[in-house]
Amino acid sequence: MIGNIDSLLNFSNDLFQKKEIKPVLGQVAGVAQYLWERGWAERNAGNFSVNITSFFQDRELDRFALYPFFPLTKGYPDLSRTIFLVSGTGTRMRDMAASPAENLCLVYISDTGSAYHIVTGNPDCEYVKPTSELVTHLAVQQQLLQKKSPEKVVLHAHVTELIALTQLPPFKTEESLNAMLWGMHPETLLFVPAGAGLIPYTLAGTEQIATATLAKLDHHKVVVWEKHGCMAVGQTLADAFDILDILAKSARIYLLCKSTGMEPEGLTESQLAEIRATFH
Ligand code: 2HA
Ligand code: ZN
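Above: the input record for the complex with zinc ion. Below: its predicted structure, written as tokens.
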């Protein structure tokens, strides 16, 4: 029987030493540092989830159900018995970069998918609770599983350059935003061929933003939340970061050109068509 508290704490501490989890912690530290350096993670901004269920045998998962239990307002039946590394609420990406294990939370979804358990990582600390955007992460993670997508990571960050664009009237539509972004650099179309989904301003942390994000991520790898930030999916944290980085590059080129007082030309229709014909 697993029941006693010391054994539970030892077990959770050992989890971060597990050979499959250690490299993920390295990736978390790396991407958290990039987000901080880019200025996309002021204070406690940004959050992520990584589905690590495949690192465990089914019988190992039984233990997770013994940890503190929190009901969810909505069920996620397809997430039954899945486990995620999730950034902790209120944690700072710059601290995450220095000590990922202390700023992460392990969330195990119950058999019914209607509650989660926090598998405490550090018995000396008050345990870290999951990001305020948990409902959006769970909704997107469930959709990725339903679609059998290879993506295991959902990443949210306050990408300054893209937020700035959503403040400008010409970029209030997905079509105009993507047309401009694709026009600023040939590799934007190459690496983000479906463009970004654009979500009109909606309060973060709500079911409404989760639902809107879910619909857009059905056919995009990234969404831009008007006047707030972005959410991208990827097979790894680095993949999700790269999508944000590529879009931000295009946005910076646009803003830099505009800062000269001139209008950027953009790639021509035939140049874009050539890229589509050559690479897609
Ligand atoms: O994690 O960025 O949108 C803090 C946020 C909320
Ligand atoms: Zn945010």
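Notes for the reader.
The mean pLDDT is 94.
The longest strand covers residues 104-109.
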